[in-house]
Amino acid sequence: MGSPTTSTDQHPIPTTAALSPDFPFAYGDWLNHRAGLGSVPAHRHGTEVAVIGGGISGLVTAYELMKLGLRPVVYEAEQQLGGRMRTVGFEGHPEPRAELGSMRFSASEVLFHYVDKLGLRAEPFPNPLSPATPMTVVNLRGETHWARTAEDLPMPFQQVSDAWAKALHEKADLSVMAGAMARRDIPMIKAMWNRTVRELESQSFYAFLATTAAFSSFEQREIFGQVGFGCGGWDTDFPNSVLDVLRVIYTEAGDKQYRIIGGSQQIPAGLWTHQPEQPVHWPQGTSLASLHGGRPMPGVNRISRRGHEYLIEDFSGRVRAYPAAVFTAQSWILLSRVECDADLLPPEAWIAVERTHYMGSSKLFVLTDRPFWRDRDPRTGREIMGMTLTDRLPRGVYLFDDGPDKPGVMCLSYTWNDDSMKVATLTAEERLEVVLASLRQIYPDVDIRSHIIAPPVAVTWETEPHFMGAFKSNLPGQYRYQRTLFTHFMQDGFADEHQGFFMAGDDISWLGGFAENAVATALNAVWGVVHHLGGATHPSNPGPGDVFDELAPIEI
Q: Closest by alpha carbon to 423, among 432, 248, 75?
């Protein structure tokens, strides 16, 4: 367990130092060590390093490079910081309330390092059947079930839950791996995961289920896809590599999740303005914002190589040269929106970028006069609505309550992939109409519309020009590509023309869609930049590149 972070003064959140089974490096230990992340030679102090992308990985990269005495120059195409940590208000109610992107986080030590540094607060996320969720409603095939705990659901749901547990223990050695993860038994983690990768890297999640005795019934697989475990249904992940799902299970990324009070965008925005104590080279009071005159650079049009420098051309046509650059935006941008020299990446890295598979996602939010869903039905004595999982159009409904006298927020629909595409061409208002019509079939006596006090807000990430998807998720057989992207920060064996350009972001990580993994890749890039510029880590605090040979992901 890591150090506690605080949601309220009375309820500390114990953070966890979950290790990635592919590369079980303790990023939290490295980040929190008193020796810091390393140093660069004094003559490099003030050296500019390009950081392309202003999401969480870009801001962590820039913040840590600044602390080491370098001068990060952040480029951001959207001219708003946060990336897919995007928290917005409603018309007439500007206070940020709707989380269009990242909204739930595991208590990762590496992420909450920054949450704590910024003095932000968190509280349990109202996932299905979570203690933070007063009521969960499961609506499948026209039947509605109300539950506070999993035990309240009918027997078929209990059987599906048991089947999932059996599948994990029989085919994925969950109990043994959980023990190794808890003990930080690196040799055991590596041995078990390397074997799992060899056996399952070409298998889809659906095939994993269908080839277990526990899930021999199609009906069980269908229910599992709709209801799932932890944060909800998993049928949209059925075509993806089962390794991606097992990483979620082994790291407990989907368990005991939290939301950031006031919105997740406060994390990258806070790093932009935060003034670190005793930064190297820079005077006290320096922040990324002050180094940039308050605004990031415009987005990038072109990246080229000149000798040992990278030439970055931004939207204004200005060109600046850098000895190193870190690209943290969505990787497909390198294929479509940024003109790049062919030598920017080794050929195998270009292939991996081309093959990256992204998940789509849509959300629809409304602001209500109050958390009316907590009203009691006089006939049943229970709440009139609950967090909802359904096979109907909305798929997932999440309810956010800041108190009985404050407006409430409803995520009326949270969908993925094909379900997301069903609403992608609709305006927010059109989505509201079809979603309300669908929810009337589940809650015929609840007038949701009468409580809405502002126009809806919506997003479809696959149609956002600079994102083109919610996050990456590997297909079966793509482990090799992911290894190429993750290990790209190790460049000593590269040709000269391929050294000095680094990639970061959650699509470079082993587990897309989780902010802590984006942070880990940012820290890899920080190590890579320091190493490239002639610096090093302190002997008492080796970084990911220093122990890479010991922990390297298996090659297959």
A: 432
Instruction: Tokens for 433, please give them.
Output: 């109409």
Distances (CA, A) of 319 to 50, 81, 221, 303, 498: 12, 22, 54, 9, 20
Cβ(13)–Cβ(4) below 8 Å: yes
In this prediction the pTM is: 0.96
Partners of 87 in the β-ladder: 99
Q: How far apart are CA 380 and CA 375, in angstroms?
A: 11
| Strand pairing class (501-503; 325-327) | parallel
Backbone phi and psi for residue 241, each to the nearest 5 degrees, phi listed first? -65, 135
The model's pLDDT over 209-241, given as tens digits with 9 standing for 90+, comes to 999 998 989 999 999 998 876 667 788 999 999
Following DSSP, what letter does each residue of 198-251 receive, concatenated? HHHTT-BHHHHHHTSGGG--HHHHHHHHHH-BTTB--GGGTTSBHHHHHHHHHH
**Within a 10 A sphere around the Cβ of 310, how many other Cβ atoms?**
21
Q: How many CA atoms lie within 13 A of 33 on its CB side?
A: 17
pLDDT digits 0-9 by tens, 248-264 = 999 988 888 999 999 99
At 212, the amino acid letter reads T
| SS3 state of residue 152 | helix
